């Protein structure tokens, strides 16, 4: 089962966290592997520790790519993304997880630090009983085509557009 959460509205990562919580309630385990996201902390990076080892979040990105003071060579970002995908393949094989979320992988593809083909090749190895969620704006058409379920979060209103800053517990 392949699920895609995309679109420019808020809710992609948090919907995935909701699915993870639901999975744990059914006595199964859920893992989130984060592409791009660097060391900055979000609320869920603390909450998951209370639910370990049933729910786990692994940050495998190096932060912003090519913007906001990013000084890392692109090759480093590519290496991080390749590592994240290799971790996904390894964890799929472990059969430990009922759900694996590849958070922001759609954006990683958009930034060309990993190819859609490489991601799909890995995703195709998913056992029948496992759910995989791909998140991030601008999902490539090939992801939507391969998906069993795809939802677009469409922005209707967001306080950011009134110049408001990101809010603790709401945004991070
Ligand atoms: P969330 O993590 O809240 O579910 P998301 O995963 O849908 O958001 P991302 O594109 O990953 O959205 O962006 C992450 C951050 O940007 C979050 O702090 C989120 O609140 C904020 N955000 C999401 N959508 C918008 C938007 N349309 N305008 C401004 N900020 C946004
Ligand atoms: Mg997100």
In a nutshell, what does this entry contain?
This protein has 172 residues and is an alpha/beta fold. The protein has one domain: 3-Layer(aba) Sandwich (Rossmann fold).
CATH superfamily: P-loop containing nucleotide triphosphate hydrolases
- Give the low-pLDDT segments: none
* Rg for CA atoms: 15 Å
Shape: globular
The H-and-E topology, N to C, reads as EHEHEHEHHEHE
Tell me the distance between the termini: 28 Å
Count every helix, treating DSSP H or I runs of 4 or more residues as helices: 6
Give the strand content.
15-25%
Count structural domains.
Answer: 1
Number of β-strand runs: 6
The biggest sheet amounts to: 6 strands, parallel
User: What would you say the CATH architecture is?
Assistant: 3-Layer(aba) Sandwich
Which fold name corresponds to the CATH topology? Answer: Rossmann fold
> Helical residue percent?
25-40%
List the ions, cofactors and other small molecules found in this model.
Answer: adenosine-5'-triphosphate, magnesium ion
What number is the mean pLDDT?
A: 96
Tell me about this structure.
- By secondary structure, the protein is an alpha/beta fold.
- The chain has a single domain, classed as P-loop containing nucleotide triphosphate hydrolases (Rossmann fold).
- It has a six-stranded parallel beta sheet with strand order 3-2-4-5-1-6, sandwiched between helices.
- It is built from six helices and six strands, in the order E-H-E-H-E-H-E-H-H-E-H-E.
- Bound molecules: adenosine-5'-triphosphate and magnesium ion.
- Adenosine-5'-triphosphate (ATP) binds next to helix 1.
